[in-house]
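TASK: fixed-backbone design
INPUT:
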């Protein structure tokens, strides 16, 4: 098992497993490792025909399986678990090797880890990966930060597995030093929060003011998705709204629990924007809306308060109103993207990252959740 794998992945939950499969499908020999060896064995047994895998049962076997310079991808929970894995593997590595954190880490943690490992001659790359489980398997948008030397080693592999834009360009680029990649991924997720909130508000207007049914709104969204609002989130929203619950026969949107959870990245976007003095009002309101959704008792009590009621619209009036909602949604999405890019620019200046905003926009054309 000596030095045969071009890349290694440790942490084989769904994202890690799918990323390892993506590398293997694209012709790379992939070393795979998990603290629970049953997951390693299951991956090789179930997907071994997709490419070349080297199953490693110990950290020592895992490192020995990697060709030099070693490239080791960590796909574990952000925070202390990531630090624990780094502490476990770093002593086994040598100068010039590369540790890649593919989780949703806070960019300040990435800056700290990069500095610590740089002193030992080991490259540390914080990589933002967007696209969820499907993207990890079939091609995500990838946002790596770290040294130029680390990207020279890692970049060709990431460019191979990344999503491809319509012109064939891989949706990955070297974002900048240390925590730049995770910073950009953080802002990406903030924009995603705003995008989803805007879509939800457009749905609410069409439902309560235009009087459209979920099926009619799904039809409207499908129409919007053929024009300037063409995007992944509009597409899947139409699919959800068209779905009927098999057990009750009701529109699924009417019976699903109306509470939205959140990962840390959206909240971090707002917190860091405050630190940088950057107004991201649309993103902030989306984060607050998610928080409000969890206060079910408060929302239930508010339902009984006096307020305006919608006057039913005629068919022509409803169609005209829907057109205005489409215009408002388009304008609002532009605002949320503008706020996000403003924050990226401010972060780039504050941390001397020299981020190319055009390059960021280019790698968000495919693979990622906000692709549009």
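OUTPUT:
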């Amino acid at each position: 098992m000596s030095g045969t794998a071009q890349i290694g992945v440790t942490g084989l939950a769904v994202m890690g497993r799918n990323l390892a499969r993506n590398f293997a499908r694209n012709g790379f020999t992939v070393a795979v490792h998990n603290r629970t060896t049953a997951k390693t064995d299951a991956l090789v047994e179930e997907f071994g025909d997709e490419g070349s895998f080297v199953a490693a049962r110990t950290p020592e076997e895992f490192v020995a399986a990697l060709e030099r310079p070693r490239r080791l991808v960590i796909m574990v929970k952000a925070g202390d678990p990531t630090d624990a894995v780094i502490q476990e593997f770093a002593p086994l590595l040598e100068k010039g090797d590369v540790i890649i954190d593919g989780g949703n880490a806070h960019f300040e943690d990435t800056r700290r880890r990069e500095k610590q490992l740089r002193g030992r001659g080991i490259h540390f790359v914080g990589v933002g990966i967007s696209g969820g489980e499907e993207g990890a398997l079939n091609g995500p948008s990838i946002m790596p930060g770290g040294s130029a030397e680390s990207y020279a080693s890692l970049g060709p592999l990431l460019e191979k597995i990344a999503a491809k834009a319509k012109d064939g360009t891989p949706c990955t680029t070297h974002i900048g030093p240390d925590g730049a990649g995770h910073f950009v991924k953080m802002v990406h997720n903030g924009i995603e929060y705003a995008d989803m909130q805007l879509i939800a508000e457009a749905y609410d207007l069409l439902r309560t003011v235009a009087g459209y049914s979920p099926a009619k709104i799904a039809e409207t969204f499908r129409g919007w998705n053929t024009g300037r609002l063409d995007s992944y989130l509009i597409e899947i929203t139409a699919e959800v709204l068209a779905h009927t619950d098999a057990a009750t026969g009701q529109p699924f949107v009417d019976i699903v629990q109306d509470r939205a959870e959140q990962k840390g990245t959206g909240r971090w976007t707002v917190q860091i924007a405050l630190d940088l003095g950057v107004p991201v009002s649309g993103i902030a309101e989306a984060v607050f809306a998610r928080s409000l959704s969890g206060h079910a008792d408060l929302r239930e009590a508010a339902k009984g308060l006096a307020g305006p009621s919608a006057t039913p619209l005629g068919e022509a009036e409803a169609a005209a109103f829907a057109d205005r909602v489409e215009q408002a949604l388009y304008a609002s999405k532009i605002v949320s993207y503008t706020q996000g890019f403003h924050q990226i620019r401010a972060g780039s200046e504050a941390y001397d990252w020299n981020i190319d905003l055009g390059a960021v926009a280019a790698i968000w054309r495919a693979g990622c959740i906000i692709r549009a």
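COMMENT: The chain is about 55% helix and 10% strand.
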